[in-house]
Amino acid sequence: MGKLFGTDGIRGIAGQTLTAELAFHVGQAVAAVLTEEKGSRPLITIGKDTRISSDMLEAALMAGICSVGGDVMPLGTIPTPAVAFLTVQQQADAGIVISASHNPYAYNGIKVFNAQGYKLSDEMEQRVEDLILNHAELPASVDGAVGRRHHGMHALHSAYVQHLLGSIDCDLTGLRVLVRQGEKSKTLEASLPLPVEQGGETPEFALASLTYDLLRSWTGIRPPWGKMTGVRPVRLIHDKRAAGWSAEQIDRFFLQRFDCSEKKYEMAKEIADLQEPILRLGSAPKTYSLYIGIPFCPSRCSYCSFVSCNLDRDRKLVQPYVDCLCKEVAEIRAQAECAGLTLCSIYIGGGTPTSLSAAQLRQLMGTVRENFDLSKVVEYTVEAGRPDCTDAEKLAVIKEYGATRISINPQTFSDTVLANIGRKHSAQDILDCYADARRAGHEDINMDLIAGLPGDTVEGFEHSLRQAIALQPENITVHTLTLKRASRIVIEDQKENDYADVAAMLEKCHLLAEAGYRPYYLYRQKNTLQNLENVGWCKPGHEGYYNIYIMEEVQTILSAGAGGSTKLVADGGKRMQRIFNFKYPNEYIQRFAEVLERKKGVAEFYDHNLGTETTG
Prior knowledge:
This protein has a 9-stranded mixed β-sheet with strand order 16-17-15-14-13-12-11-8-18, sandwiched between helices. A 5-stranded mixed β-sheet has the order 1-5-4-2-3, sandwiched between helices. The two termini are 45 Å apart. Helix 1 (20-38) crosses helix 4 (122-133), helix 7 (233-242) packs across helix 9 (262-282) and helix 11 (358-371) runs parallel beside helix 12. Mean pLDDT is 91; it is low at 609-616. It is an alpha/beta fold.
């Protein structure tokens, strides 16, 4: 066998050894070989699994196939046997599966079936491989035209389901869930629920509830948020209150329907009560906040998945980026004025905004001050997160140019844990930076901590929390470590990491309440350790307005910079639209004219009734 195909197709780390370019050439080569075999335009089915890279590989394969005249029948996310079955049923000439089964998520694979639904022959794989590796000239399509994409995916899924139902002889009425561990197993069954319009539940929720009940009884574990999986539990309380639900109905919704713990629900209610007057201010018609993103960092923390560039490697991009950013800020001002919008708050985040030089901070913040009346802004935050690039001069610039709130984010006060996550500074550096910020006149400071960092302990986290409280910042935000798919922790599959009892760490937050802090915003994330949450705590009167507004989705957020996502909100949140900037700084700079053109959608959104909600 050659250099690409193994016993289970082509495998590799997506974006590194298994690139979009390689997938494009595989698509071309497979279609070319099939065209030569049959003397006519081939039809190829493509299915995929749920890996994050599957969409990229699917698009590249389809482009390659169509570029040499092959037709494509995309099957979407579907099991591997379904691709084999539908390849035969639809009389396709080949099928492709994008999947890597048991491999770590960063990997993916391309497996090719023949027209009979079996693995492509070794001889055919060799021909495909030779075309790719020898950079051979590919034959033109039989009619000189590019291929096309077939539609009807949902009908194909139904055909496979009907095939499965016809292949088994058992009773599939009602709901049934089974768990097996070693030699032990347990099953729960339930009848199908009444339709929703008759006061029942959807079958999906009923099945999820049955699964939850089975796993809770099997493991003895009750997740703190029960069955609830959403990012914004506090938003649910606001929505139910706005819909006229009574307190008792909302209680039942959280405590009975979703089995939330009473402690978590009481915290969410307390936050909702505190937020109400702030939300009334932020939800006034045509109110907006401005977000400015700086996608540069001195180094990449191991838990981070945000798009950010290493400052040492990409320093040449910084000044062109800041120049473009200033122009986009001015364009946002123009669009906001055209739409009749009123600025409420400003947030400069990242990345690490203080990775800019003091002169670049002056340029950016000077542009902000020239374009907006800062006296009418309720809050102006700048993340000054890392002491290894935040000095006294930059802190003075931030204060001089109108910021009212900054973040200095230790994450931990343990030198060992800081080293574990890739930070190149000490806990003492954080203390020195904080002292510099106070000397510069900053009177509203947030500090972030993360519970569950590799190598931390419950005792170690408590020490960090007590140290933060001793400094008396106006805000302390406690995050729970989230294992994000694009973070180094996950990509490198660092099994030696020891994640301590995060729930026990969060129990220590009673120290915050005892020190006079109160929770003011909360959100959750997928893949967070022990299904927990992130909570912002503040001294009374020091709530972070922008944090509340972006979490509760009550106002427009106009976003500037690479990776920016502008969210336009109207009619009390009933109408929404997103405008996306290019993700990477280099692309943002090179295609900046398109960024400015897209921003015209802000005024257009408010000028016209766009009808149904869109999310870009």
